[in-house]
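User: I'm curious whether this sequence folds into something compact or stays loose and floppy. Could you predict its structure so I can see for myself?
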Amino acid sequence: MAGHLPPQTVTDVNIKGITIQANQIARLAMALTDAWGAMFEMTETDFTRFAHALGFSTDISRLAYAAAGSLQYVTEKKSSGRQRFIITWHGGDTIVLALRGVTEIARAFKGIDDQKLEVLLQHHSDVFKRAMAAMPKYSQYQMFSPEVAARVLAVHGATATSSGLFALAERMSGKVSIDKEGRKGIPAQFIRSITATLASTV
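Assistant: Here's the prediction. I'll summarize afterward.
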């Protein structure tokens, strides 16, 4: 969209977008935690690899991670009594959108339905493939229901359906699962790569 920066053109000046959008980043990260039904820490190594795959420079990736950590939206508490602030994978896409100058982050994927989603992924297949490769290896084996995938995309305004996402995963993710009672699964790697591709290109 007009006014949304390509990742390659983001500079240190744009890091302030994370602070400006702090409330939206935290609110949507919480909404995504609810949508997934789980919370996953995103280390600096994870974020740098993720952001670099989407086209951000290594320096910008590191600055963005530090800025996001300063938002303090998740506190890790250890049995020793020590605590630290972390970011989660649920904040990753929102941080990317903020860096690119997107202001209505909760509506960033508005208008994206099953058909448009497939067209966008095909058009940005290079970004999608890099995103898939950048995801942690364990995410290939975490199978979430297509209903979870639909809720995750809906947090940013998309209207993709669970049936459409499962069919898309069959064609593009490399694998899906169905248990003996009919429960379907899509790899977390695939779901996260979809949202990463959209966050860096819409």
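Summary: The chain is about 55% helix and 10% strand. Residues 22-36 form the longest helix (15 residues).
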